[in-house]
Amino acid sequence: MMKNDDTTSVVLESSVQEEGAGPSRLEAEEQRKLDAYWRACNYLCVGMLYLQENPLLREPLKPEHIKNRLLGHWGSDPGQTFTWVHLNRLIKKYDLNVIYVAGPGHGAPATLSNSYLEGVYSEIYPTMGQSAEGMRRFLRQFSFPGGIGSHCTPETPGSIHEGGELGYSLSHGFGAAFDNPDLIVTVVVGDGEAETGPLATSWHSNKFLNPVTDGAVLPVLHLNGYKIANPTILARIPHQELESLLVGYGWKPYFVEGDDAALMHPRMAEVMERCVAEIRAIQQQTAAAGGTTLNAETLASAAKGLLFIKEAKLPSADGTAVVVEAGRRGFRAHEIVDVGREVKRREADYRTGRATLRALRDAI
User: Reading across the β-sheet that carries 216-222, which strands appear in turn?
Assistant: First the structure.
């Protein structure tokens, strides 16, 4: 999120459609602690990139304190740590079940710094405790011979997505959310990564998410303005064009941008609370309505061309009705196919109401 001119820009996106309850105000003391934690994370990120000795700068910096070869990207780190610290606030406040997926390439310092500050890293690797010597070892190992890579490699506690493959973060986020109804997956998408084919396509994954049986995915489009060697497209197009693009994908974007942390923290807290409230609202509303948010007319129109109608040997009208009802009840695609066959086999029971779609599915 940090450009070279220290301008911060974040796009938060929510796939829900209804406004939730208004967010509470960020208190001054809470903001002070958030900012202090964020700055500590950023210090560790810089230390991982540059330092092999003198981790706390207790003596004047010397050339021999600096790594001979620098690997890793600073550009995505402040934005990722900024997102992480605000997620921590909401997790504590609302007892949320949240995981974090880091997409930007070579942005592992953001994840590693939080893991270290939270104490998890030292639990797994006791030689890198929260002391001056432990910190020296922790900073030195990053992108260093015999150490760890600049992505969230398997050595990183809790890592399920290495990052740096560029293009798969959002699809991995959806994979984690499917069949985990209590989970919110926050995916930070790098604006360089966003130009890859896999990432550009995976915005459409929201079409496959069921608000009742699946969790939620909250992408954070990280606009720091540059990829590895060039300016990025999404950071350069007009604001309205970017918003229209995301709305067209089926998302509801919020923009958090600026260069003053004192103003950015309250705005980020407000937007993230609103996103979580809206996610919960649509999940609850959909569950109360007894199905998904899929439009019945759209399903009915598409159902006539589905292969399963032919395979199940159902008349088109009956096949359409089965798809609409099964879709409302959150059935998976393969379940709809199987239920279609059962409807044909037990047609009399289905038409008289002695066998419901759910009962037919459960009997398979």
Answer: 97-102, 183-190, 216-222, 8-14, 252-258
